[in-house]
């Protein structure tokens, strides 16, 4: 009877090196040929598993990068802005005049934006010193870094406000009229602009008008939180002329 020999076939798999025992009867040359054939047959599968592991590792690396960017308070994605605002309700009257007077006080250094928002804003974000977080549209704040109860702006027409924050000069006070009233807005950063300087020109504080419609949706204070606001705490005021 031909001798029985065992040959070790060493290969790789997705979880690491693997060892296969090939048992065959016959002369040593026959056994070695059988082992080589088994290893050759397994090679495509091993290559496929290694490729899958490489893809998985790459996907994890990308996911880790996205997570790190999101957790970086200074990161603002393309198409997004980080901004704060103070809202005077139209229903309470003289909202434009109130906004103009408070803007002047902030620019003169009589009060900083944080305290002004806390004391005068009708928006629930007053408790966050007016922070809206990082967002693409006022109507979709919860797609950004602001979380908590629903906001009066959710799903509403906020085109005028959105145009302002996407074009205003970063760090400069601006005002915009909406269906809710008049907003004093401070854009802190805009995605895709490097150092964060936006266009807006010099001179008087910018003002954007929008046609008003009835109904405000402000029924009381809502519980809202901003990840960026919590992390950074109180920030400095606006750039003064």
Automatic annotation (TrEMBL):
Enzyme class at the top of the EC tree: isomerase
Keywords associated with the record: Isomerase, Rotamase
Biased composition, class Gly residues, residue ranges: 192-203
Region Disordered, annotated ranges: 191-241
GO molecular function: peptidyl-prolyl cis-trans isomerase activity
Residue ranges occupied by any PpiC domain in the UniProt entry: 78-189
Bias type Low complexity, positions: 210-228
Originating organism: Emiliania huxleyi (strain CCMP1516)
Keyword Isomerase: yes
E.C. numbers: 5.2.1.8
Recorded catalytic activity of this chain's protein: [protein]-peptidylproline (omega=180) = [protein]-peptidylproline (omega=0)
Descriptive protein name: Peptidyl-prolyl cis-trans isomerase
Residues annotated as signal peptide: none
Pfam family, one: Rotamase_3
Positions with biased composition (Basic residues): 229-241
SUPFAM superfamilies the record matches: FKBP-like (SSF54534)
């Amino acid at each position: 009877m031909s001798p029985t020999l065992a040959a070790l076939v060493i290969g790789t798999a997705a979880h690491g090196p693997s060892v296969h025992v090939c048992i065959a009867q016959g002369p040593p040359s026959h056994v070695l040929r059988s082992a080589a054939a088994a290893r050759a047959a397994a090679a495509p599968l091993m290559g496929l598993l290694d490729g899958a592991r490489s893809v998985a590792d790459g996907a994890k690396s990308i996911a880790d990068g996205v997570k790190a960017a999101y957790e970086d308070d200074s990161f603002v994605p393309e198409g997004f802005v980080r901004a704060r605002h103070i809202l005077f309700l139209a229903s309470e009257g003289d909202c434009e005049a109130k906004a103009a007077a408070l803007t002047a006080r902030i620019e003169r250094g009589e009060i900083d934006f944080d305290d002004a928002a806390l004391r005068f804003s009708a928006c629930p974000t007053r408790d966050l010193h007016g922070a809206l977080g990082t967002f693409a549209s006022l109507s979709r704040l919860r797609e950004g870094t602001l979380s908590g109860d629903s906001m009066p702006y959710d799903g509403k027409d906020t085109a005028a406000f959105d145009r302002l924050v996407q074009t205003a000069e970063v760090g400069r006070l601006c005002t915009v009229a909406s269906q809710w009233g008049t907003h004093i807005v401070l854009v802190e950063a805009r995605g895709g602009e490097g150092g964060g300087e936006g266009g807006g020109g010099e001179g008087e504080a910018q003002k954007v008008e929008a046609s008003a419609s009835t109904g405000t949706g402000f029924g009381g204070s809502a519980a809202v939180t901003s990840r960026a606001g919590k992390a950074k705490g109180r920030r400095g005021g606006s750039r003064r002329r």
